[in-house]
Structure formats: structure tokens, C-alpha cells
Amino acid sequence: MNNALRIAVVLVFFSLTAAASVRVASVRTIPRSIPAHTASEKIHTPTTTQAIVRGRLRVLHDPSVAAQERFVRVPVLMYHYIRPILPHMTTSSRWLSVSPKHFRAQMEELVRFGYHTITPDDLADAVAGTRALPSQPVLLTFDDGYRDQYDVALPILKANGLSATFFVVSDYSHIPSYLTNDQIRELDRSGLITIAAHTRHHVGLVDVSPSARRDEIFGSKKTLEEIVGHPISAFAYPYGNFNEEVKKLVKEAGYRTAFSTRLGSIHTSSSLFEARRIRVLDDEHLEPILRKFGR
Ligand SMILES: [Zn+2]
């Protein structure tokens, strides 16, 4: 079996036999059909993840990954709010929310099945071949810097000895539902949380002016570095919105990794600035997902 076939997770397509059993709506959600610059958080639906886990979607290699390239397979889980699921919530609000009860169960599941959390720098080092990863590695990420990540997620992570990366919107710290500067500093000093950037104002970076784009990418890094007192090395694109120009600026700013919202778990040196993730839903069990997308 050649290398291209072994690089097996990233792109998905419907097999002839599975097509009939999957809702047509989810066909439009497959990243392959969407140019990277229009990729948004809406594209990567839980339907796709679960269809892969259940074997209803076939998985192909990613043609953007060269056959000879070194790769590591690390599931990067994507969370937003850790808050109760309420009846009036829209579908998209539900997709951004995991209840505290289920989040606790998911973290306990990680420990029970022997998964080990790593940081974005660990991932970059592993891709470069300069660091060995622990067995069953997983990278936990939380976007937007919501207050509940401090109030609810942090104690649960601590109780389970798990580390995570928080992508913080640097200029939202005065808004009540977001992390304050003091909380960002405390998270950083906990030794468990990697503080990372997510622009200054949560803008779609493809859609703003060149000067605003630069300011959002460079400015959020600088602001967060002033808060925590050391370099910030990881970035996530708001709405998963990026193109080659955006990637170039993120590299120029000095980040080592940048995370998208596209689905997958294979990482190479050429994909570290569009690293793929897996959105986690409230009622999902992690072990079947990690088994499918992990080693
Ligand atoms: Zn975001």
C-alpha cells in the first residue's frame, strides 16, 4: 500500500452505497467541495464526524498532503461554550455548546481510555521530528475565550489532569461574558492552559481590509503577550476563514501553528497553518471519534 493511501483521514466522500442513507443537506458540508477561503464553522458539521465514525462516510487521503511528507495523526478537539443546553437554543448554538455534565463525562472518558493531552507546540515539534508524542495524543482546544471556559471547563480539566489550548479574542476582555485579563493570566499560570490568539475582534480575516487583517493577526499576538508576559505561538482563524494571504501573514507574525475548522486529524509541515480539527457535540462519546481519527 503506498503512502498516499495510508494518509487516510482527511477528505471524505460518499461511497455509492452510503449516499442514499445520508441526508442531502450534509453533502454540502463536505470540506472537499468548498474552497478554503470560504470555509466557515458551519461547514464542518457534526453530521460529517458521526457519519465517519459510523462508517457511513468513506475517508480518502488529502491530495494537499504530499505522499512523501512526514505526518502525525493527532485529533484536535474543538469546543466553544461549556454551558447547559436549553430548549430554545438554535441548532448552531447547540453545535457550539457542550453541557458541563457531558463535558465532565467526556474528560473522564479521555482519562479512562488512556489519552494524553498535548500542546500546539508539541504538535509542531512532532511534525518537525524533534519531539516524540505520548501514546494516544489529543489536543483540546476552546475557541473565543468565553467566561465559562474559566468557570466550568478549567476546574474539570484540572480535576482530570488534562491540558488545553484557549483561543482568546484579545480585545474582548472588557465584555462580561468573556475572559478578563486577570483570568487569562491565571489560566496561563495554571500550567494547564496554553493561551493562544483568535484575532482582536473575531473578524473573518479574508473579508477585512489588508491593514485590518494585519492588525488583527499581529495585534492580538502582541496584546496577549503583554498580558501573559511570554510569546504566543498558536492561532485559530475565526469562522475558519482563511486563504493563502491570511496564512502568509500568520506565519510572518511568528506563530508556529494555525487552526482551521475543517475536519481531519493528519498534520504535516505544510498543513500546520491550516490544521484540521474535530468539533465535539454535547451528546457525543469521545472514544469512538478518537479511535477513528487517532492512531
Ligand atoms: Zn471563534
Low-confidence stretches: 1-43
What's the CATH H-level superfamily name? Glycoside hydrolase/deacetylase
* Helix segment tally: 12
Hetero groups bound?
Answer: zinc ion
Task: Report mean pLDDT, rounded to a whole number.
Answer: 84
- Global Rg: 18 Å
Just name the CATH architecture: Alpha-Beta Barrel
Could you state the order of secondary-structure elements as H and E?
HEHHHEEEEHEHEHEHEHEHEHEEEH
- Looking at the structure, what is the overall shape? globular
Q: How much of the polypeptide forms β-strand, as a percent range?
A: 15-25%
CATH overall fold name: TIM Barrel
Which secondary-structure class do the elements indicate? alpha/beta
**Level of helix content?**
25-40%
Number of β-strand runs: 14
| Count of all domains | 1
Largest sheet: 8 strands, parallel
Distance between the termini: 17 Å
What is the level 1 CATH name? Alpha Beta
Q: What is the fold's blueprint, element by element?
A:
Elements: H1 3-6, E1 11-13, H2 16-19, H3 24-27, H4 46-53, E2 58-60, E3 72-73, E4 76-79, E5 81-82, H5 91-95, E6 97-98, H6 100-112, E7 116-117, H7 120-128, E8 137-144, H8 147-160, E9 164-168, H9 181-189, E10 193-197, H10 210-228, E11 234-236, H11 244-252, E12 257-263, E13 266-267, E14 275-279, H12 286-293
Parallel strand pairs: 4-8, 4-14, 5-6, 7-8, 8-9, 9-10, 11-12, 12-14
Antiparallel strand pairs: 1-2, 3-13
Summary, kept brief:
By secondary structure, the chain is of the alpha/beta class.
Structure notes:
The protein is α/β, with parallel strands linked by helices. It has one domain: Alpha-Beta Barrel (TIM Barrel). The strands form four sheets. Strands 4, 7, 8, 9, 10, 11, 12 and 14 form an eight-stranded parallel β-sheet that branches. Helix 6 packs parallel to helix 8. The two termini are about 15 Å apart. The N terminus is likely disordered. It binds zinc ion. The site of zinc ion has 5 residues, from strand 8.
